[in-house]
Amino acid sequence: MAHRNINMATVRTVPHMTRMSRRMTRRRTLTGLGVAGAALALAGCAQDAPQDTWQPKGDNAQMIHDLQWPVFLIAGIVGVIVIAVIAYVIVRYRDTGQPMPEQTHGKPALEITLTILPALILVGVGIPTVTTIFELAETDDTECIINVTGQQWWWEYDYPAQDGCGGISAPIVTSGQLVMPADTNVLLRLTSRDVIHSFWIPALNGKKDTVPGRVHLLRMHANEPGIYAGQCTEFCGLSHANMKMEAVALSAEDFETWKANQLEAYTPPEAGSLAALGEQAYIANCAYCHQVNGLSTTAPDGTVTPVLANPDQFVVSGAAPNLTHLMTRNTFAGATWDLLTPECRERVWNAPPEEFGALYLQGVTPECLNQVDLREWIRNAPAKKPMYALPSQAANSGGLVRGMPALGLNETQIDQIIAYLLERN
Amino acid sequence: MAIIERPTDPAPVPAVAGSGAPAVVTPSQAYGVLRRPVSSTGWRSWVFTVDHKKLGIMYGVVAMFFFIMGGIEALLIRLQLAGPEGTVLSAGLYNEMFTMHATTMVFLFVMPMAAAFANYLIPLQIGARDVAFPRINAFGFWCFLAGGLFLNTSWFLGGAADGGWFMYQPNASPLYSPTNGVDFWALGLQITGIASLTGAINLIVTILNMRAPGMTLMKMPIFTWMILVVQFLLLFAMPVITVALFLLMFQRSFGATFFDVAAGADPLLWQHLFWIFGHPEVYIIVLPGFAIVSEVLPVFSRKPLFGYRFVVFSGAAIGFVGWGVWAHHMFASGLGPVSVAVFSVATMLIAIPTGVKIVNWTLTMWGGKIQFTTAMLFAVGLVVSFTIGGLSGVTHAVAPSDTQQTDTYYIVAHFHYTIFGGAVLGLFAGFYYWWPKAFGKLLNEKLGKWNFWLMMIGMNMTFGPMHIIGLQGQPRRMMNWTEARAGEGFFNLGFWNRVASVGSFILAIGVFLFLVNIWYTHRAKSNTPKAPLDPWDARTLEWITQSPPKEHNFDKVPTVHALDEFFHRKYEVDHETGEVRKVATAEEILAAEEAQGDKHIHLPSPSYWPIILAFALPVMAYGVIYNRLLIVVGGLIVLLAMFGWALEPSVADDSDYDPPAEGGGTNKELATIG
Amino acid sequence: MAMWLFLGSECLLFGGLISTYMLYRGRHSAELGPDQIFDIPFTSVSSFVLLMSSLTMVLAVSAAAQKDDRRTNLWLTITALLGATFVGGQVYEFTVMYREGLGFTTSLFSSSFYTLTGFHGVHVTVGIIMLMALVGINKRSRVPGDKAEVVEMVGLYWHFVDVVWIIIFTLVYLIPA
């Protein structure tokens, strides 16, 4: 009984279907063009957010982009077609007093076709996907190694001594801004000191989790000098929103300058200056956790003792940002705040590639220093950035805190410390 | 009204807890410590009930309560993100808020609301008088309530869980999450997990063993089919999360080091366990919505479901393939390229059976006679929204592309289009469609349409912009966003975040109208008439009985001859012309059935033990967190309740009731053991 | 059938626990690893006891099928006793290990070992409670429904727990890390 039903239905609806599909084809062309236009507009917009995922600025991100825009386009077209068909159906077949419709139970041929069609589209998408996955996983062609370590809630970068990166004679440790040579394949070795974080510079590559106890590899490449924003994207606790970073790409020449500056010996502040008082205040209040390479104390008898930070005793992750060359970076506290005033920041961020390197290498000059945020931070860090940094909160972690505690400094001490830090360039 | 009903007794079952004194009963025998509860009115008839319909309604009420809670949490999140540097919530509270929003919506709203529908409707749809294990059914409900309440007491006891609903390790270990929130989360979900597991076993047995005569598997209503798939997914997914939660509990409360990297552990173990559960869970959430619209669309198109077999098999296929795609939640977690490629392709595969469903729904409407009732509007809304959600899903099956999108708002947009657009809209279609069945009155259609359009507009305004926000690089789970990274121009984050926040309030008003509608329909002065027997011209068995159904569902279990049995009893199809003629009304069909009703129906009797057993579990859970002694106390209650349960026959003797039943052979419908 | 479904679900529970153990079996200090801590002859004996209890369970099921209440109760009790012996052995084994310094939190190996075998022990204990309850109800002639079916269901559970032990015993004790 049901069988005859199906046959009848098939016969009767065929001409009807043909008429439909002709109309559909026309609609498809139009909507397809519409979506393509929208996609182009999306890709072409210049002043978009700095973490826009549709503006690749390096080979890896470009590879992803080349794969993703056609997929988005296909998905968009399919979506418009399906929704258009639904719209057509609910208008055309709304109840206008027509008799009860035929009780068609299905048309296997049509259903199989409509199953195979998406399967074919997916095969078309699947093949380039798989090849791109393997291309992106390639790391043999990298020429420069940088270790990236995530911790609550900032990033540390260390450059091991190597022949790569144009040769590095002694390790360089920095944080917040990842400085790398432009137009070079850089290998990031990612890990974490506490919980899982994720390293993501959308303009340069997709994200990769940093997992404690594991080292993950990520290849980075920037076409041109410039500054590229990123953010930790694996939920990592209280201040996850304040764990940002930038990648800074410099020309080969500028990168050499940067390296040389990073390895420069320590120059103590001029005796009697505000910065010299700041050095004392720094040793008394900051140096427990924050290393400044080359910093030392001289006892009355003339013995020189290097001042070594020992963050293991205070912080859960056992690390705090190295401040030796703080003023060569232009953000601080997990790249959440700028060390530059808004005008100076604009200049650096919006610089064309050829001028960018010189501007970046100027670092933070006294005129450009963003006093407001830096003072607030030194005065009471946990009030500015939510952290687990009160002694009362350390009961469950063996007395260790997560993040920078409030140090209880007075305004004079803050002045001194800022004067001292301004010379860390 | 006695539990033992004879069809000649016309007294209807009250739709909501009625007033009136409990029936006077003299139990002939006490079982164990407690006398058996036998009242069938008043609060006792709800608290100790084993009736699948009452349990279904209670599931629905409690799930609705948690839906509102989760919704308020969502609104607070959107308030915080409406502008840059939001200060509505502190960082800690914000983290608790999104963790609990997700946990509540997934475990305490969508899953139990689906359980509400399944509980209420499955026995009715397959022509059974109750589920296979009514007491276990009651136990499941109370576990859900106990677990849900337990979980939410954490708000008042030092803070809720703050590790995200996925609770990645080691961020959720005591060192990084020192409040008891995560303990409450792990133990609370463990308890609600019991509800899911017992419910799954119960419903599978019910569906496979208790179908009406003549109802072969391929004549089973599509709703029942999809729910069957869901229960199998639950059956195998729950133990995996159980293991994960046990490991987490041992880690947090008993000093084990399963996720402690310093001890040599691998934090990815948690991710694998969680997502092996978590991905089937996605289908557990969304298939009930599919199940509902697969019933609603044919009814209001006046056509059978197009390609019933295809829909059944694609549902089963989703059930199977759903197990092989969990690692697509981990494309960025550092798996090797081979695993990534395999899971990427498997994820694309699952789009095919999902696409089949959309095609079949559309073709069901094609050539129909479509009536836009509120239920139908929600169903069409689901098809459209889920299409969008499904297609954005395909874009991140492309693993390299996913490494850009994962953990951004693009993902948030995607899964809200699938979960809200796929599951919640389906549930609302179900509310409007089956409301007259459960409560005897039709919800107001005018309010219903406002409800639908506000929800639909609100939903698209809230989650639509999140596609843009995500592609512009705003990560999820961020307590705030900053102007510095918001960009300018058409795609700037500020504008679209505001749109989303406004949308969320429109959505909330839409949901609120649903509550208004319930009040409007059932308020004391309401002039809403009693719903007709077959208000929608429906097609399935649950409509061949009174609305609301009597306690024993059917006076006579109907014999099934065809898929869409009820339709075929009402209509005759002319095979030559394809013309459809009405030959009988619902009233006539029901009268014919009731005329030959069974003389003596035994139903399982109420019991104290399920609720006692269920509420002993949070006692033990508090014990784990605060005082080991409480574990022992709770454990003793559990043991006692289990023995009491085992000693109590599932069907009380006739002599438990007043008046005692007349003699004669009993018609024992339900084999209830355990 | 409900029991079959439940056991299907249990398979994944033990699957998860066994996977955890397999992942962490090598993570221990040099002195307190599986090689030093396991007393294989002892565990073999207790495994044999558990295996025998499966046999007595079969006898109980067949007695129940023949509606022989006395023999059913007898075999059920023996099964419970054998099970109790196994659990007793496990408690003894844990005590010895603990004295040797292998606490629950000592290493990842110990945590996952105790969790896996402990979960199994709890399952055996639950089985014993079910057997005893069954004997109790049977004596008072209050078994709901078909008695043989109830005994068979409990038997099914018991055999499952045995089979799981065989797998655990092989993977944990016999195959060297």
Automatic annotation (TrEMBL), chain A:
Keyword field contains Heme: yes
Domain Cytochrome c, first and last residues per copy: 273-425
Ranges where the Cytochrome oxidase subunit II transmembrane region profile domain occurs: 42-140
Record-linked Pfam families: COX2, COX2_TM
Pathway given in the UniProt record: Nitrogen metabolism; nitrate reduction (denitrification); dinitrogen from nitrate: step 4/4
GO terms under biological process: ATP synthesis coupled electron transport; denitrification pathway
GO molecular function: copper ion binding; cytochrome-c oxidase activity; heme binding; nitrous-oxide reductase activity
Catalytic activity: N2 + 2 Fe(III)-[cytochrome c] + H2O = nitrous oxide + 2 Fe(II)-[cytochrome c] + 2 H(+)
Keyword Hydrolase: no
Any one of the GO CC terms: membrane
Domain Cytochrome oxidase subunit II copper A binding: 141-261
This enzyme's EC code(s): 1.7.2.4, 7.1.1.9
Gene3D superfamilies: 1.10.287.90, Cupredoxins - blue copper proteins (2.60.40.420)
Cofactor(s) the protein needs: Ca(2+)
Alphabetically ordered keywords of this record: Copper, Electron transport, Heme, Iron, Membrane, Metal-binding, Respiratory chain, Translocase, Transmembrane, Transmembrane helix, Transport
Membrane-spanning residues: 69-91, 112-134
Membrane topology: Multi-pass membrane protein
Subcellular location per the Swiss-Prot or TrEMBL entry: Membrane
InterPro entries, sorted: CcO_II, CcO_II-like_C, Copper_CuA, Cupredoxin, Cyt_c-like_dom, Cyt_c-like_dom_sf, Cyt_c_oxidase_su2, Cyt_c_oxidase_su2_TM_dom
Protein family per UniProt: Belongs to the cytochrome c oxidase subunit 2 family.
Self-association state and partner proteins as the record states: Homodimer.
Protein role: Nitrous-oxide reductase is part of a bacterial respiratory system which is activated under anaerobic conditions in the presence of nitrate or nitrous oxide.
Family annotation (PANTHER family): CYTOCHROME C OXIDASE SUBUNIT 2 (PTHR22888:SF9), CYTOCHROME C OXIDASE, SUBUNIT II (PTHR22888)
Protein's UniProt name: Nitrous-oxide reductase
TrEMBL record, chain B:
Organism, as annotated: freshwater metagenome
Swiss-Prot/TrEMBL GO biological process terms: electron transport coupled proton transport; oxidative phosphorylation; respiratory electron transport chain
Limits of the Cytochrome oxidase subunit I profile domain: 37-561
TM region positions: 57-77, 97-118, 139-158, 184-210, 222-249, 269-293, 305-326, 338-360, 372-394, 414-435, 447-469, 499-520, 631-647
PANTHER family for the chain: CYTOCHROME C OXIDASE SUBUNIT 1 (PTHR10422)
Signal peptide: none
Name by which UniProt lists this protein: cytochrome-c oxidase
PROSITE patterns reported in the protein's UniProt record: COX1, COX1_CUB
UniProt region (Disordered), positions on chain: 654-674
Cellular location(s): Cell membrane
Major location category of this protein: membrane
EC numbers for this chain: 7.1.1.9
Enzyme class: translocase
Matches recorded under Pfam families: COX1 (PF00115)
Pathways per UniProt: Energy metabolism; oxidative phosphorylation
Topological relation to the membrane, as annotated: Multi-pass membrane protein
Reactions the enzyme catalyzes: 4 Fe(II)-[cytochrome c] + O2 + 8 H(+)(in) = 4 Fe(III)-[cytochrome c] + 2 H2O + 4 H(+)(out)
One MF annotation (Gene Ontology) recorded for this entry: metal ion binding
Keyword Transmembrane: yes
SUPFAM superfamilies associated with the record: Cytochrome c oxidase subunit I-like
InterPro entries in the cross-refs: Cyt_c_oxase-like_su1_dom, Cyt_c_oxase-like_su1_sf, Cyt_C_Oxase_1, Cyt_c_Oxase_su1_BS, Cyt_c_oxidase_su1_bac
CC terms in the record's Gene Ontology section: plasma membrane
Keywords for the protein's UniProt record, in alphabetical order: Cell membrane, Copper, Electron transport, Heme, Iron, Membrane, Metal-binding, Respiratory chain, Translocase, Transmembrane, Transmembrane helix, Transport
TrEMBL record, chain C:
Membrane topology (UniProt): Multi-pass membrane protein
Short name of one Pfam family: COX3
Localization of this protein: Cell membrane
InterPro entries registered for this protein in UniProt: Cyt_c/ubiquinol_Oxase_su3, Cyt_c_oxidase-like_su3, Cyt_c_oxidase_su3-like_sf, Cyt_c_oxidase_su3_a-hlx
Any GO BP annotation: aerobic electron transport chain
Keyword Signal belongs to the record: no
This protein's UniProt keywords: Cell membrane, Membrane, Transmembrane, Transmembrane helix
TM annotation in the entry: 5-24, 44-65, 72-92, 112-135, 156-175
GO molecular-function terms, A-Z: cytochrome-c oxidase activity
One annotated Gene Ontology cellular component of this protein: plasma membrane
PROSITE patterns: COX3 (PS50253)
Record's keyword annotation contains Membrane: yes
Span of domain Heme-copper oxidase subunit III family profile: 1-177
Family per record: Belongs to the cytochrome c oxidase subunit 3 family.
Record-given protein name: Unannotated protein
Native species: freshwater metagenome
